[in-house]
TrEMBL record:
Transmembrane parts of this sequence: 23-43, 63-83, 90-108, 114-135, 155-174, 194-212, 250-271, 291-308, 317-336, 342-366, 378-401, 407-431
Annotated ranges, domain Major facilitator superfamily (MFS) profile: 24-432
Bilayer topology annotation: Multi-pass membrane protein
GO cellular component: a single term: membrane
InterPro entries with a match to the protein in the record: FLVCR1-2_SLC49-like, MFS, MFS_dom, MFS_trans_sf
GO biological process, one term: heme export
Cell compartment(s), UniProt: Membrane
Protein name: Major facilitator superfamily (MFS) profile domain-containing protein
Record keywords, A-Z: Membrane, Transmembrane, Transmembrane helix
GO molecular function: heme binding; heme transmembrane transporter activity
Major localization class: membrane
């Protein structure tokens, strides 16, 4: 082999290949993400029944949902290091099995004095989500072509929102309000056993078929990320976190993302109380309204993915969605004040469409700003900030509801969204990842002349 031939080989691109089984990997992820997020509002959507059975306050029941927010800032950095260092398979195994473990623990929570066991099960499931909800952008870049990344990220978020939809729909259908606590206990037992039974085969699927990565990367950019992962150490990871936290554009966007996700999570936690304050006895309506919010949001998130892949207008899309979300929540408040159920269904559907559509746009914009930092770490920081804000805002809203009522609570939410809208407008429009993809697409590798 001549010197020129050696130089040519050294400057050629690595083997790039896209595998058909990438869609199966995505489906498996969607399945176990769905079963994890289903458990977020599993109890808060039936707050009145749970409160009656366990003899605890509505605020105590709120913590079954807020525990998911508490766990994020505690575990986000250790989880991000594990994902960055060990890859998708390890994250998938931890996420699937801790989800299953939490569901099993809740089987043993049936008893009027066992609310602590229920809360422990929720906390274990909450821990699983740190290894689950950070993965859509990671799966997208690990398995899919650059032009598929945004839509795949939105489909991954589809799994989260599908689980939330089921969490709003299923518990009110299974667990009914009754003055006979034995009847409530039977319904709760049915729900817990059913969930554990469904989760078990999904967890086993992750064991037998959820590889860390394909044999060959789908892009030159992903090849380089693989090489960088080999050098991930605790010191390197800590330095990367420091760099991210010093990135002003990213931190401003993180605050915006946290605002909108916190409002969405607060609505999910408090929806039962909102609806019953205007429509007494409408527990099942509250569940169905939550379902409508999530279903329209699923449509919105998928549409956003396709729009972003076509336009790459991340900041512009995020700004428009933020503004329309603020308008929609004012419409929701107005519909409640008019005491019109059909208007409430319509308003919360519109709100769900926009607020959930923001999530893929927000994650993708963060990835653009911070590229080439690992997607799972970036998403983890986004989620941690949003969950911390969720706890703060939900506690404040609980106080506002008690003292001033639902209307002021919703107006406060609209104010938070308007602040986020302004901050989004002020965020620098940085597209580092798109620049890398364009360089990969147009850069020609030529041998060096002797």
């Amino acid at each position: 082999m001549t010197i020129n031939e050696k130089i040519v080989l050294q400057t050629e691109k690595p083997a790039i290949r896209v595998y058909g089984k990438r869609w199966l990997i995505l489906i498996i992820y969607i399945a176990y993400a769905t079963l994890s997020t289903l458990q977020w509002v599993e109890y808060s959507i039936i707050t009145n029944v749970v409160s009656k059975y366990y003899h605890v306050s509505a605020s105590a029941v709120d913590w079954t949902a807020m525990s998911f927010s508490i766990m994020w800032p505690i575990l986000v950095f250790p989880a991000s290091f594990i994902i960055d260092k060990m890859g998708l398979r390890v994250a998938g195994l931890i996420g699937a099995f801790t989800t299953a473990l939490g569901a099993v623990i809740k089987i043993f929570s049936i008893g009027e004095n066992l609310f602590g066991v229920l809360l422990a099960g929720q906390i274990v499931v909450a821990a699983s989500q740190i290894f689950i909800l950070s993965l859509p952008p990671k799966i997208a870049v690990t398995w899919f072509k650059p032009e598929e990344v945004s839509k795949v990220c939105s489909l991954g978020i589809f799994g989260m929102t599908l689980g939330s939809a089921m969490g709003f729909l299923i518990p009110p259908m299974i667990v009914h309000d009754s003055d006979n606590l034995d009847d409530i206990a039977y319904d709760l037992k049915t729900m817990c056993w059913g969930l554990a039974f469904i989760i078990a085969p999904v967890a086993l699927t992750v064991v037998f078929y959820f590889p860390a990565e394909p044999p060959h990367p789908p892009s030159q950019t992903m090849f380089e990320e693989r090489e960088n992962r080999k050098n991930v150490t605790t010191k390197v990871f800590v330095e990367s976190i420091k760099t991210l936290l010093q990135n002003k554009a990213f931190m401003l966007h993180t605050l915006c993302y946290g605002c909108i996700v916190a409002i969405f999570s607060s609505i999910g936690t408090l929806l039962n109380q909102f609806i019953l304050s205007y429509f007494p006895g409408a527990q099942e309506d509250a569940g169905r309204m939550g379902l409508v919010m999530i279903l329209t949001g699923m449509v919105g998130s998928v549409i956003t993915g396709f729009v972003l892949d076509k336009t790459h207008k991340y900041k512009e899309t995020a700004f428009i969605i933020f503004l329309l979300s603020a308008v929609a929540i004012v419409g929701f408040a107005l519909a409640l004040e008019l005491n019109s159920k059909w208007m409430v269904y319509l308003a919360i559907g519109i709100f769900g469409f926009f607020v959930t559509a923001y999530m893929p746009a927000g994650i993708e914009f963060a990835t653009e700003i911070t590229f080439p930092f690992p997607e799972s770490t970036v998403t983890g920081i986004l989620m941690a900030s949003s969950q911390m804000l969720t706890v703060i805002i939900t506690v404040i809203l609980g106080i506002v509801i008690d003292k001033f009522g639902t209307l002021f609570c919703l107006l406060f939410m609209a104010g938070v969204l308007l602040v986020g809208t302004v901050l989004t407008l002020l965020t620098p429009n940085i597209l580092n990842r798109q620049a890398a993809f364009m360089k990969e697409k147009y850069c020609q590798f030529t041998p060096i002349k002797q």
